[in-house]
Amino acid sequence: MSFLFHQKKVVVGAAILLVLATLAIFAPLIAPYSPEYRVARSHQAPSVEHFMGTTKMGRDVFSQFVWGARSTLSVGVAAGVAITMLGTVVGLIGGYMGGRVDRGLDLLTNAVLVIPNLPLLIFLAAFAGTVGPSVIIVIITLTSWPWGARLTRSQTLAIKNREFVLAARMVGESKLRVALVEILPNLLPLIGINFVGSIIFAIVTQTTLEYLGFGDPLHVTWGTMLYNAQNSSAILVGAWWDVAAPCAGVVLVGLSLALINFTLDEIANPQLRSGPALSRWLRWTRLRTRALQVRR
Fold first, then answer.
1. pLDDT tens for each residue of 48-100
2. What does the radius of gyration of the chain's CA atoms come to, in whole angstroms?
3. Number of structural domains the chain divides into
4. Which of 63, 91, 249, 274 has a CA that sits 20 to 30 A from residue 73's CA?
């Protein structure tokens, strides 16, 4: 784990994410106004009092940005956890059990994969009507788990015939213990990549659905901020700040998680390490080996 903190991409990504998470967690203390109250003139430009400006309804954009960060990040993390758990369970069971179980789960995975994701999301959201964050989490989870399941299944198929797994079977270990103790720990880098990617996808998908008008307009998120800005023609009247704030939030979250994901990719697949990254990895490995030898 200490290797991660020596990577510039991880440090920068974690710093950005930490700032946004702090805003989200302490939103009641940081936001100067309630996100639903009219506190100034319509579309007031950024100033000392309202440094992110105001909306057409006279609401403070910074207060909405902070509260929107709480809602958007909560949905992203919750959906990311659900997508990762479902995909990991399906992929692990299918890859390890094989036979009819694998064929049945693989058929289900392929059936969901071939359906266009965004049109299906829009259809489900339209069918459900105005949807809140919890419904959005369910919709995203039910339509987004197959990618992680395919990756997990492929890796499980590669691991289950290795010597340490075969040895565990030979000594009489149960299938459940072999899957959870012998195989699952070797899938952790892949699960981490799937989790980070799922959060990014969930946040972008939630923002898209709410921007299209399928979210609850009374619930402040970055997506509903964009929806309200579009309805008020913010760009046409020159109120660029009304659109820039939520867009910046989505971009910063995506950037921070992408930087972290790049390093996880390098750990999971050493072939991606090249040039300076490879040199840093080898130098860190040598130093760690020497430190262990000294302790002994």
1. 888 888 888 889 999 999 999 998 999 999 999 999 999 999 999 998 888 89
2. 23
3. 1
4. 91
